[in-house]
Amino acid sequence: MDMRGFQQYKEQSVNTMTQGELLLLLYDELVKRLTQAELALNKQSYELFEDSVQRGIDITQYLSDTLDPQYEISHELDRLYEYMIYELGRAKIGRHLEPLAHVKTMAGELRESFREAQKTSGAGKQAAE
């Protein structure tokens, strides 16, 4: 398979996604990285564990950085993301599963909440048309 063609396809896919779809993709990637970190820690593959947790921190920081401060919910989400980053740091430094699992659960719940909100807002748009 031509990897350049695949890379172009991926870029085109991302460029045509809605903001809601991109947000869900970020949450999917966050949960995936945290799952990868759990598996790596169980296998005592510490380099992969640390890389996966760091990627989770980077994604969470990006989510925080892209919040729009004009909305009240953004302040609450920012505090939540800050807590998640703190917990991921604890997991990384101490090589602990508990904070990692906690953040993974939180990320999954947030993903589902945004998915439901996207469905609801999509249904509202369709009814208005």
From TrEMBL:
Pfam families: FliS (PF02561). One of its GO terms (cellular component) is cytosol. Keywords: Bacterial flagellum biogenesis, Cell projection, Chaperone, Cilium, Cytoplasm, Flagellum. It comes from the Bacteria. Signal peptide: none annotated. SUPFAM superfamilies: Flagellar export chaperone FliS. GO terms for biological process: bacterial-type flagellum assembly; bacterial-type flagellum-dependent cell motility. Its main location: cytoplasm. It is found in: Cytoplasm, Cytosol. Belongs to the FliS family. This is Flagellar export chaperone FliS. The gene is fliS.
